[in-house]
């Protein structure tokens, strides 16, 4: 082949036709070009979409981590308000350093909540206290309702 | 519902809208994966992975580009990575001939002989394609099945236009040599083999 490379995308002029009849390597390129042009699209097997939906299911966000986080927060608030403060030294001695680090943060939070709760008992009048309690219960109920709706929506999407 | 609306809704978390997009593009994506990998099972897995990645990274999609182009880009890169990880190339014996026939069956084609010829052509095309390197294969597939320009191919595969031209030329030449070898070895002459110029 003593000529520039054959480009099958070029229009087929009479000169090129004549050349193709004489040059086997260019003719082979032309044949392969035609073969590729006529090759069909291959369709996916039946049920492709259904299998994708199954594969997608674990990807959808689940409400459980939010629920767990919320419950932990609530528990720490309740613990801070009701339980006497624990000794951090005892905790540090009995558990590993990493666990004590986490525990120290939780205890700090619970102590702060406890302090706030006790101060509030002294300075907040009973009527305001009651209304605060009622609004907290209402807020908590709304939160649970929103979680339930999120869970239902997630189940529907599966 | 048009594609732009479906994309907008899918980006807002509407799974049904994304599934409608899958309906629209599954054939194009699957075909690319099949042509790249040569096995129905691998192709399905790669096509599913493509849609999964698209779903997870919808926020990265640039709406100025066609959605299908974005999907094909994901699919091509995934298949190239997969081929590079798995094996350097499939031998002729590894092509998935048995599974090709039902997938290319065309109900609008009543002539069994023509259908059989097309089936043979399809097998031959797949055999030839699988002899190319993954990147050359992707260039050929995007050029012939999706009619991408050289610039578009370069954009999607991270190549310059001259590199695409060079790969296209090299791949065609390689395919022509392989085709000539097959021609002289065994296959009887059929419609696509006769000179038509």
What are the defining features of this structure?
heterodimer, A: 158 residues, B: mainly alpha, 71% helix
Describe it.
The complex is a heterodimer of chains A (158) and B (197). Chain A has seven helices and no strands. Chain A has 158 residues and is mainly alpha-helical. Chain B is mostly helical. Chain B has helices at residues 3-11, 15-37, 40-56, 67-86, 97-104, 112-129, 134-144, 150-157, 161-185. Chain B starts with a helix and ends in a 12-residue tail after the last helix.
How do you describe this structure in short?
The complex is a heterodimer of chains A (158) and B (197). Chain A is an all-alpha fold and 158 residues long. Chain A contains seven helices and no strands.
Write the layout of secondary structure elements.
The complex is a heterodimer of chains A (158) and B (197).
Chain A: H1 14-22, H2 24-37, H3 48-56, H4 64-82, H5 88-94, H6 97-123, H7 126-157
Chain B: H1 3-11, H2 15-37, H3 40-56, H4 67-86, H5 97-104, H6 112-129, H7 134-144, H8 150-157, H9 161-185
Helix pairs in contact in B: 1-2, 2-3, 2-4, 3-4, 7-9, 8-9
Question: Helix proportion of residues of chain B, in percent?
Answer: over 70%
- Separate helix tally of chain A: 7
What is Rg of chain B? 18 Å
- How much helicity do the residues of chain A have? over 70%
């Amino acid at each position: 082949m003593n000529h520039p490379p054959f480009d099958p995308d070029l229009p087929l002029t009479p000169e090129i036709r004549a050349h193709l009849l004489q040059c086997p390597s260019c003719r082979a390129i032309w044949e392969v070009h035609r073969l590729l042009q006529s090759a069909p699209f291959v369709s996916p097997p039946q049920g492709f979409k259904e299998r994708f939906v199954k594969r997608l299911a674990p990807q959808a966000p689940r409400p459980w981590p939010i629920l767990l986080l919320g419950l932990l927060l609530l528990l720490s608030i309740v613990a801070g308000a009701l339980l006497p403060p624990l000794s951090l030294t005892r905790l540090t001695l009995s558990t590993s350093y990493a666990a004590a680090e986490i525990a120290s943060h939780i205890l700090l939070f619970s102590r702060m909540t406890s302090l706030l709760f006790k101060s509030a008992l002294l300075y907040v009048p009973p009527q305001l206290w009651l209304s605060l309690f009622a609004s907290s219960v209402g807020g908590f109920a709304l939160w649970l309702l929103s979680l339930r709706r999120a869970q239902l929506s997630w189940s529907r999407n599966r | 519902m048009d594609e732009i609306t479906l994309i907008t809704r899918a980006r807002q978390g509407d799974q049904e809208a994304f599934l409608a997009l899958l309906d629209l593009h599954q054939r194009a994506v699957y075909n690319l994966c099949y042509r790249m990998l040569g096995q129905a099972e691998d192709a399905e897995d790669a096509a599913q992975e493509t849609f999964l990645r698209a779903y997870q990274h919808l926020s990265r999609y640039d709406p100025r580009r066609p959605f299908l182009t974005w999907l094909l880009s994901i699919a091509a890169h995934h298949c190239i990575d997969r081929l590079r990880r798995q094996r350097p190339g499939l031998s002729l014996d590894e092509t998935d001939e048995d599974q090709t026939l039902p997938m290319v069956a065309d109900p609008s084609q009543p002539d069994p002989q023509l259908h059989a010829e097309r089936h043979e052509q399809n097998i031959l095309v797949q055999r030839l394609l699988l002899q190319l390197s993954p990147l050359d294969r992707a260039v050929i597939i995007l050029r012939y099945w999706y009619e991408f320009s050289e610039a578009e191919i370069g954009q999607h595969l991270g190549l310059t236009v001259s590199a695409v031209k060079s790969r296209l030329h090299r791949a065609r030449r390689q395919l022509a040599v392989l085709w000539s070898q097959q021609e002289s070895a065994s296959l009887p002459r059929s419609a696509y083999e006769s000179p038509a110029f």
